[in-house]
Amino acid sequence: MRSLVLKEALILSKTEKKARKIEFSPATNLLTGENDVGKSTLIKILYNTLGADVPQLNNTRWKRAKAVCCVKFALGGKDYYIIRDEKFFGVFDANRELISRHVGLSGERGIAHFLNPLLKFRIELERKEDSKLGLAGPSFYYLPFYIDQDNGWTASWASFNGLQQFTRYRTNMLEYHLGVRPQRYYDAKRKSVEIEDELHDLGSRKDALLAVRDSYHKRKAARQVDLDPAVFRKEIEQLVDEYNAIYGRQQDVLHKLKQVRNERYGLESEISILRRAIKELEGDYAYAEDPKTPNPVGCPTCGTEIENSIVERFGILDDIDNCYALIDQRRKKLVDVQANEQTVDAAYREVRSELSSVDQLLRRQRENVTFAEFVTAEGIKEVMSSLSEDINVLSEQESDRQASLDALKDDLKVDSKHKKAINEHYQARMKEFLAALNVHVLELSDYKSYDRQIKANALGSDLPRSLLAQCMAFLHTMEKFNHFTLCPLIIDSPLQQDQDKDNAETIFRFIFSRTLPGQQLILGTVALPGVPDDAIPGDTRNIELTGKYGLLIDSDYATVSSEIGEMHEITLGSD
Question: Do 515 and 489 touch, CB atoms closer than 8 A?
């Protein structure tokens, strides 16, 4: 089984001149500290940087820090770095060489297009908004491996934002992860939808040709066509109108293209000006730092004397930092503008293509090679024969596509015996784990099927322990019935709902003993009340955070900036 292992988390705030570097053990990691020291923020950052959308991360304080996050991880014998700055992602290899840039999660340029193949995760689910298939992003792969403090202790597999965009996402992903429906089912499902769309298109085209052929057959049977081109005056006028309409659209798109290019030129100019300003400010600072520089310093332009003090020098450094911050903002905007320019440019090329085809038809008319003459020359019989040939070709294509669809039926079936075995194993693990966690309020009916949410009878302190049991039951069922990339189990604040001392110890012992073999564990908690040292794995790495709102610290700024600063610059660059 392949494992994804987190090695480092690096967080950089250029605005606050603070940062943090955390190194993880490949085994057990205990993240401890009092409230408001940043435990949950650090935990949320991990899967958020790896392409998920984690709730409650964009609070006012964190937005103000404008943090750039980086995670170093290993998978398949290789190390990777992923940088995330808001919606912008950069992927780098072990040598910090750029692999790819991405914008957003699962859209056309989203990080899912790198991470999903890496995880061997190729799932498309039905979107609620239009009932069409859409790419399920990395969040859906991480569902079994993350319990978030805010959403994860009230319902299972609900720890990420954006999950509800797909119909029945929880049932679908349970069937995928538990092995009820393997990857080949989802591959077949995607292919079947594509084939059904093709069949619908072929049917529509075939019906249109049949209607035309039947119309000719009824009205003009086998008569020769003898038409004057003047009959087509109305059609020609319509063609001219169409040409004018397309030409008008071309001018509109051209105007938009000019606007977006002017916006790009403006941003590039601003970035260039800011870089020159930084160079000049750095020169001013070097001059002010030079021991030979007099105090005060006379302005070469107006002659005003300026005190060469520490305050003034820090002011120059602040101006440099502000310029860098403005450059980052402009570069993010530039990425969006460049993407918009590509979209508008594609629209312009498309409308030019439309205009070209209509223009060719008009030129043919001007050269007196008209459709009327073609019909007169060929005759209705030839037209009907041509239509029949086209209809036959479409019928053959329909038969071929239907055969391809029929061939997928076996892959789209669910093995009922296999499904029953999975459910029985899940039930057995639930019974075992609920007993281990001192949960005695649930009946078998509360977990008789793997897709049933635990909510009716588990109240108060029983609910989080029941959800923890379900989380582990899912993982152990996955281990037996599925092949998957084993991701870190990340659990935030398991002592929910005022657990007493005995239950607190039981919870931690349970987590340490039931984590899958070889699985990395990152566990965040204020403390481990009543847990003896012998209950904690010997290779545990203790990471203690201190200081109110102290996740980012001054002392790590230079180190983290030197390690990820250049990668961040490259992430915000353009191809």
Answer: yes
Q: Hey, which residues does 544 pair with through a beta bridge?
A: 32
Handedness of CA 394, 396, 399, 405 (dihedral sign): negative
- Sequence-ordered list of residues with C-beta below 8 angstroms from that of 396, at least 6 positions apart, any chain: none
Instruction: For residue 514, give the nearest of 568, 478, 461, 545 by alpha carbon.
Output: 478
pLDDT exceeds 80 at position 235: no
Q: How far is CA 403 from CA 191, 406, 451, in A?
A: 13, 5, 34
Q: Three-state SS for 79? A: strand
3-state secondary structure 270-312: HHHHHHHHHHHHHHHHHHHHCCCCCCCEECCCCCCEECCCHHH
Tokens 């570097």 sit on residue: 21
Q: With H, G, I as helix, E, B as strand and everything else as coil, classify residue 383.
A: helix
Report DSSP state, residue 442. -
- 530, 505 in Cβ contact below 8 A? yes
Q: Which residues contact 254 (CB under 8 A, 6 or more apart)?
A: 348
Cα dihedral 402, 407, 408, 411, rounded to 10, equals 160
- How many whole angstroms separate alpha carbon 414 and alpha carbon 433? 28
How far CA 277 is from CA of 272, 284, 304, in Å, comes to: 9, 10, 21
Closest CA to 449 of 52, 175, 122, 105: 175
DSSP element (H, E) containing 504: helix 501-514
Dmax over CA atoms of the chain, in Å, equals 105
For 281-319, write each residue's pLDDT tens digit. Answer: 888 778 777 777 777 776 665 556 677 777 777 778 888
The model's pTM is 0.78
- Distance of alpha carbon 393 from alpha carbon 398, whole angstroms: 9
Please give the Cα distance from 386 to 216 (Å, whole number). Answer: 12
Distance, CA of 142 to CA of 43 (rounded, Å): 14
Q: What is the pLDDT of residues 394-449, one digit of tens each?
A: 889 889 988 888 888 888 888 899 999 999 999 999 999 999 999 999 999 999 99
Q: Is 301 in contact with 235 (CB distance < 8 Å)?
A: no
Query: Could you read off the pLDDT of 462-476 as tens digits, one per residue?
Result: 999 999 999 999 999
Contact 297, 306 (CB under 8 A): yes
pLDDT tens-place string over residues 151-180: 899 999 999 999 999 999 999 999 999 999
Q: What whole-number distance in Å separates Cα of residue 541 and Cα of residue 487?
A: 18
DSSP assignment string, 321-374 = HHHHHHHHHHHHHHHHHHHHHHHHHHHHHHHHHHHHHHHHHHHHHHTT--HHHH
Sequence-distant (≥ 6) Cβ neighbours of residue 338 within 8 angstroms: 264, 574
The amino acid that residue 203 corresponds to is G
